[in-house]
Structure formats: C-alpha cells, structure tokens
Amino acid sequence: MGDRTEDGQVSQVDSERAENLLKSSELFRATSTRRTFMSRLMAAGGGVALGAGVGGGLLFRNGAGAVVHADGVDPVVAFGNAAVGAERIAVAFYANALGQSSAYGVASDEAMGTLLNSSHRDYFRAARQQEQDHQDTLVSLGLSFPYSVFGFPSGTFNSASAMLALGEKLENIFIGAYLGAIKAAASETNTFIAEAAAQILGIECEHRVLIRDIAGDDPPNNRVFEGNLSSNGSTVYATANDAVNALLALGITVVS
C-alpha cells in the first residue's frame, strides 16, 4: 500500500503521486482545480486512500476504520469501476452518432450518414469530450473496468430517431448509476466520492435534456427530481451490477 501516516491518512508522497496522475486529465489540467480536488481528498478523514502507485485501485476506509480493497468488495469502488465502463460506452455512443471512430466502439456501428445538424453536432462533440474526461479522471484515480470495446444494437445509428431514443435510455441509466454511487458513498460517510459522483451526474443530466431537445420532446426538461422521487425519474441502482445489467439489457454487447 502507499505511504501513510501513523493515523492512516494519505501521506504527502501519495498526494503528490495522485496529483501527477490527475494532470493527464483535461478536467484537472488547471492547477487550481487539481489542488482543490486533492485538498478535499486529503481532508476526507474517513474517506479515500491510494494504493501503491495508485494503479492498484482505490482503497476505502469504512466507518470502523477498516480498509477495504477495491476488488469488487466495497460497493463504492464497485460503482466507480462500473462507471469506467459506462463512460467508455458513452464515448462510443457519441462518436458513433457523429460518424467518428473511438477507442471504445466498432467501425461497423459508426453512422454512415449525417444524423445531426451542425449545432447539434457541436452538442455531441462536447458530450463526447466530457465523457472521455470522466473516463480519464476515473482511471487516473485507480478505478478500472475489464472491457474497453462495445457494440450497439443493429440499426441504432441508421437514423436520428433510433440513435436519440437509445441515447436517452443510456443517459437515464448513467444518471441512475451515479445516484446509486452517491447513495452508497453517503452511507459510508464518504463525502469526497459522493461529491465527485454528483459533479459527473450533473453533466449526465445535461446530456439527457440535450438529447430530448434534439429529439423535439416537449418539454425536454421534464423532471422535478432525477431519481425515484419523480414518477418519470431514473431508477436509482442499488448495486453496480444492477447498473451494468441495465446497460446490457439495452442490447449493448462486450466486444473486447
């Protein structure tokens, strides 16, 4: 495990190692943003610690002070690992819709024609980059998902209507997954991870509304609450596996 002080807090060595990793993410390129993020990590007394070289995965401290390794045991880590896969699927979706290649999609899924007007393509280009930044940030923190390339149901990118319909369903699941992650983190009093998940959640909510707006849904912002406090809210997933299964149920396939 990484260098730690006698009371189990993250040491300065681990702090510097993590900050260096965060520099690789566009989201944390600005020094002020990165330092704020790191200061909150260091202040999370019951929260997050970094494994050796960080690549070994995030470690979390439960309420009793015990450290739980991130091998699918801790529910917060499980949500984080699943989020890496979800963000890869999201990057592939937005790239395919634009008719562009990505590291996470297959060429046969890429739209052959133009499905979006120029303004809407700008929305999707921004969304693709945001999802990539989310993925990069999660990976830089030691989270991982065993698969990288995903396929979509046949015909998804043959028309704008089919593409937008699936896109809204995807964003619904992403929202529910991040709500589940926030709930799991809050139950462990891990405010650091809860806040990080909430900040990503807000962007997924934006994406959902933009997709509905492009599809002509009226109104596109049709929710009072994002989760189960609204009759039309996203399912708040109890476990990471539930969220992954929901994605698979849409016809998303693992290629490699």
Q: Distance between the terminal alpha carbons, to the nearest Å?
A: 30 Å
CATH superfamily of the largest domain: Ferritin, core subunit, four-helix bundle
What is the fold-level CATH name, i.e. the topology of the largest domain? Ferritin
The gyration radius over C-alpha positions equals 19 Å
Whole-number tally of structural domains = 2
Low confidence ranges: 1-11, 41-72
Sequence of secondary-structure elements: HHEEEHHEHHHE
- The CATH architecture of the largest domain comes to Up-down Bundle
- Structural class, from helix and strand content? mainly alpha
How many strand units?
A: 5
- What is the mean pLDDT? 82
Helix content: 40-55%
Fold topology:
Elements: H1 12-22, H2 31-43, E1 48-50, E2 58-61, E3 67-68, H3 75-97, H4 118-140, E4 150-151, H5 160-187, H6 191-214, H7 240-249, E5 253-254
Antiparallel strand pairs: 1-2, 2-3, 4-5
Helix pairs in contact: 1-2, 3-4, 3-5, 3-7, 4-6, 5-6, 5-7
How would you characterize this protein structure?
The chain is mainly α. The chain folds into two domains: 12-68, no CATH class; 75-254, Ferritin (Up-down Bundle), CATH 1.20.1260.10. It is 52% helix and 5% strand. The chain is built from seven helices and five strands. The strands form two sheets. It has a three-stranded antiparallel sheet. The radius of gyration is 19 Å and the shape is globular. The two termini are 30 Å apart. The model is unreliable at 1-11 and 41-72 (pLDDT under 50).
